[in-house]
Amino acid sequence: MDSQRPFPFMRLPIELRLMVYERLPIQIHRHDFERLNNPRNASSGSYSYAIVSNSINLSILATSKQINAEAMAIMRAKMNHILNAPPRMMVDLSSTSKIHKCGGPLWHISHYLAKRAVAARKHLGSVPYVGTGMRAGGLRYTPGNDPQYLVMARLVETWFRGLDHQRKSASHVGSASPAIELALIAPQDWSQEAVNHALRQLAYVLFAEHGAFHFQLRCVGHLYPERTQDMRRQERALVDKVMWGRGGDAVRAVPGAAVEHEEYEAEWSENSFLLL
């Protein structure tokens, strides 16, 4: 074929064109934040936390009216898949203090909820953690000076659009409240006492956020210290103790299965997959 001439896509049978639309990939992006030049964290990529987001290029819908009509149902299904997929965050337990500092994900979650409360004319008392405006060391945090601010703000807004979508879907089918998945990473040589301390700190900060969703805590098997069944029971009891007495619309903790190596490589890092 003449490489200078466009491919006659519309001459293909409709069955083949539909197969092309179905194989347009959902992109998975991993955004690393708060990089730490700390050799103890080398196994986890030297970041305090990372957010995994999904996206798909919808430009094919603007190609022509006919392609738009053919591909719309398939692309809508892919968008629904993205909206219903739980937001994902990776947290290095050796630097859990970073995630609630100004500019971190919990700071952005709190400020997003605060803006929603103001827009809905609700009292800010419904947002229990809004940050102090101060960085570690007493320096005031200025979003305009943070090159990662806009990226983090956009990701958190996308999170809550997805959570709102999941909440509406759950109300129709009577399923559980929407979830945010946390992949927990820790240095292999960490003691159980250090792991428990980090989990307690993480739980107190995370579960202050309200919104009728739950965090599913999943350790990354090959990037997490080996644990016995008794150690796992201790961890669950510790998280349950933090959550004791918190019900209603408060965030809940749900232990999840470990993130296996293949899953981590395929869906928790920069990659893409096909929705078939």
Spatial shape: globular
The major β-sheet equals: 7 strands, mixed
Distance from N terminus to C terminus (CA atoms, Å) equals 30 Å
Element pattern in H and E: HEEHEHHEHEHEHE
- Helix percent reads 25-40%
Summing up helix and strand content along with how strands pair, one would put the structural category as: alpha/beta
Number of self-contained structural domains: 1
Overall mean pLDDT: 77
- Report strand %: 15-25%
Oligomer: single chain
Regions with pLDDT < 50 over 5+ consecutive residues?
A: 36-45
Strand order of the largest sheet: 6-5-4-3-2-1-7
Tally of individual helices: 7
Beta strand count:
7
Cα radius of gyration in angstroms: 21 Å
Summarize the structure.
Helices cover 38% and strands 16% of the residues.
Task: Describe the structure in your own words.
- This protein has one domain.
- The protein contains seven helices and seven strands, in the order αββαβααβαβαβαβ.
- The chain has helices at 14-22, 65-84, 105-119, 149-173, 192-206, 229-243, 261-267, and strands spanning 26-35, 47-55, 88-92, 179-185, 214-219, 252-255, 271-273.
- The longest helix has 25 residues, at 149-173.
- The chain starts with 13 loop residues before the first helix and ends with a strand.
